[in-house]
């Protein structure tokens, strides 16, 4: 039971760190957009969060990400996925 509690505590700490970083790098409008993306597509939101955290941790982020820049990042990540619909 203690191992489960330890793992849960580590996950909570990681989530808290992630939220702190996102608050530092995203404007209010960008945070709201990311929240809406998380509701519609949680996997895409997770990819964006990881990408932003990597930029922050490596020091490549020069300024805060506003809503327009977040939309650019979203479209760039979304373009990488090719969907092929086969109709029968």
Average residue pLDDT: 86
In CATH, the topology is named: Helicase, Ruva Protein, domain 3
* CATH architecture annotation name: Orthogonal Bundle
The tally of helices reads: 4
Sheet bearing the most strands, described? none
- Helix and strand pattern: HHHH
Shape, per Cα inertia axes: globular
Percent in helix: over 70%
- Low-pLDDT segments: none
Counted beta strands: 0
Strand content: under 5%
What's the quick description here?
The protein has 88 residues and is mainly α.
Relevant terms:
Helicase, Ruva Protein, domain 3; 0% strand; globular; mainly alpha; single chain; 4 helices; 88 residues
Q: Could you describe the 3D structure shown?
A:
By secondary structure, the protein is mainly α. The protein has a single domain (2-73), classed as Helicase, Ruva Protein, domain 3 (Orthogonal Bundle). The protein has helices at residues 2-25, 28-40, 42-57, 67-79. α1 (2-25) crosses α3 and α2 packs parallel to α4. The longest helix is centred in the N-terminal third of the chain and has 24 residues, at 2-25. The N and C termini lie far apart (51 Å).
Layout of secondary structure:
Elements: H1 2-25, H2 28-40, H3 42-57, H4 67-79
Helix pairs in contact: 1-3, 2-3, 2-4
């Amino acid at each position: 039971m203690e191992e489960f509690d330890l793992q849960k505590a580590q996950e909570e700490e990681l989530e808290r760190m992630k939220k702190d970083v996102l608050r530092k790098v995203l404007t209010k409008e960008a945070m709201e957009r990311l929240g809406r993306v998380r509701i519609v597509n949680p996997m895409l939101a997770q990819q964006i969060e990881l990408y932003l955290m990597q930029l922050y941790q490596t020091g490549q982020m020069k300024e805060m990400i506003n809503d327009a820049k977040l939309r650019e990042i979203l479209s760039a990540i979304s373009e990488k996925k090719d969907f092929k619909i086969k109709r029968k």
